[in-house]
Here is the input.
Amino acid sequence: MSTLRITLRAGERIFVNGAVMRVDRKTHLEFMNDVTFLLESHVMQAADANTPIRQLYFVVQLMLIDPATAADSRASFERSYPALLAAFSSFAVRSGLQDVADLVARDRYFDALKRLRILIPLEDEILAGTVSPIPPIEAPARVQIAAGAR
Here is the structure.
């Protein structure tokens, strides 16, 4: 078993197994066993969940920081995930969402959040229309094959 050491600044909060803790001065925490935690810097506020992928992030975040309501949050995830997957044509986004669904199915919420954080900038580009489109594939020019007498 490995030890996980985290350093927190004064006033910073951490969510551990559903509990919110705030430290009054710089401190170090060592987790000696398996623990579910989320640093304050990775917590998304409800008001910031204003795009589809951010909303999915918020739902997964609830599974992690509020284990008592994780079943309800998972049901919400399972309702929204298929529609979200169908809404994107980007291979990178669709692949990332499939990874997220796999991680959630294995109760790996922290890893699912990490994967979603990677997808948020891609979603921003898509919504802003700044993603360079993939050029259409043109049909190859037809090559003349020997023509016989008619």
Observations:
- The longest strand covers residues 4-8.
- The longest helix spans residues 109-128.
- The chain has a mean pLDDT of 85.
- The chain is about 45% helix and 15% strand.
